[in-house]
Amino acid sequence: MIIQKTENSRISSFDPENYSFGDHFTDHMIICEYENGAWGEAKLMPYGPLPFSPSNMAFNYGQACFEGMKAYKDSSDEVYLFRVNKNFERINKSAKRLAMPEIPEEVFVGGLKALMDIDRAWIPTGEGKSLYIRPLIFATEEGLKARVSNKYMFAIVAAPATSYYSAPVSVKISDYYSRAASGGVGFAKAAGNYAASFYPTQLANDEGYEQIIWTDDSTHEYFEESGTMNVFVRIGNTIYTPPTSEKILDGVTRDSFITLAKHKGIDVRVEPIAVKDVLAAQKDGSLKEIWGVGTAVVTTAFKSYGYQGENFELPVLSEEESFALSLKKALVDIQTNAAEDPFGWREKV
Ligand code: COI
């Protein structure tokens, strides 16, 4: 790897007590370019803008996908990554679906570790804090013919993370818009999936909801995801999450929640969640919680939801009573080396 360190660290201008998610970037970034059918040598260099023209094929035809990961510091200032392999495998699944070249493991993992090592001073500690890491691959060839690009860039940037939502949010169960279609790219972390979600989300915001629970595109009768997160529902003492599919992202936090819940002896069912069953559980009082999970948010509890013009409140539960909050704590404790890691998920950098 080519290493070009910055001589002007910006760390002294970063206030770890006062920032929002993803609005400051660490001193360095990784880039690696693909052309003539091969990835070149990765480069660690100062974070900053890169020159691309408006005819870049990623801007025009959307060949771009990304990952979301986090690094954590424990109380002794040691740095840890979490389930790196899952993100490595997923970025290549996304790349393949978007007809982009897969990234070699040594570039992805080597780049990640080198960046965490050099920018370790940027990893904040404290409640809900970590360093959010964004690996991405995008087309870089110039050209307006709608075809597969011959040039790409892989990059990794990192930004201090703090709570994504400051309080439980209200969500709208979609009965019209959908996030993903059968045969489409819903399982991939394609940049365009997020672009396509913004307009329906704005409409939901105008109605007073912060996020959407996405339902299936053909019947709108089944939950798929929520906002940019996988979704969980608790009815009685059983938790449900839809099975992953070509329309549902195979979330690392989702998988970790399922594993942790089973480990704690909670009844977990990975099966379709019908809107009508949620409404029926609301009616008979057995609906306890609905929440979203993802790397950026970890967990966002929903306080209420709307469906076809009607609003429904969810119970307010303490951390001990809430499966969402107790599983979140168990997960963060593993990630930050505050608890045993029986699953071998944590990796010291
Ligand atoms: C993540 O949770 O890492 C995501 O990719 C969501 C992102 C849009 C902030």
TrEMBL record:
<keyword id="KW-0663">Pyridoxal phosphate</keyword>
<protein>
    <recommendedName>
        <fullName>Branched-chain-amino-acid aminotransferase</fullName>
        <ecNumber>2.6.1.42</ecNumber>
    </recommendedName>
</protein>
<comment type="pathway">
    <text>Amino-acid biosynthesis; L-isoleucine biosynthesis; L-isoleucine from 2-oxobutanoate: step 4/4.</text>
</comment>
<dbReference type="InterPro" id="IPR001544">
    <property type="entry name" value="Aminotrans_IV"/>
</dbReference>
<keyword id="KW-0100">Branched-chain amino acid biosynthesis</keyword>
<dbReference type="InterPro" id="IPR036038">
    <property type="entry name" value="Aminotransferase-like"/>
</dbReference>
<dbReference type="InterPro" id="IPR043132">
    <property type="entry name" value="BCAT-like_C"/>
</dbReference>
<dbReference type="GO" id="GO:0004084">
    <property type="term" value="F:branched-chain-amino-acid transaminase activity"/>
</dbReference>
<comment type="similarity">
    <text>Belongs to the class-IV pyridoxal-phosphate-dependent aminotransferase family.</text>
</comment>
<comment type="function">
    <text>Acts on leucine, isoleucine and valine.</text>
</comment>
<dbReference type="InterPro" id="IPR043131">
    <property type="entry name" value="BCAT-like_N"/>
</dbReference>
<keyword id="KW-0808">Transferase</keyword>
<keyword id="KW-0032">Aminotransferase</keyword>
<dbReference type="Pfam" id="PF01063">
    <property type="entry name" value="Aminotran_4"/>
</dbReference>
<dbReference type="InterPro" id="IPR005786">
    <property type="entry name" value="B_amino_transII"/>
</dbReference>
<keyword id="KW-0028">Amino-acid biosynthesis</keyword>
<dbReference type="InterPro" id="IPR033939">
    <property type="entry name" value="BCAT_family"/>
</dbReference>
<dbReference type="GO" id="GO:0009099">
    <property type="term" value="P:L-valine biosynthetic process"/>
</dbReference>
<dbReference type="InterPro" id="IPR018300">
    <property type="entry name" value="Aminotrans_IV_CS"/>
</dbReference>
<dbReference type="GO" id="GO:0009098">
    <property type="term" value="P:L-leucine biosynthetic process"/>
</dbReference>
<feature type="modified residue" description="N6-(pyridoxal phosphate)lysine">
    <location>
        <position position="189"/>
    </location>
</feature>
<dbReference type="GO" id="GO:0009097">
    <property type="term" value="P:isoleucine biosynthetic process"/>
</dbReference>
<comment type="pathway">
    <text>Amino-acid biosynthesis; L-leucine biosynthesis; L-leucine from 3-methyl-2-oxobutanoate: step 4/4.</text>
</comment>
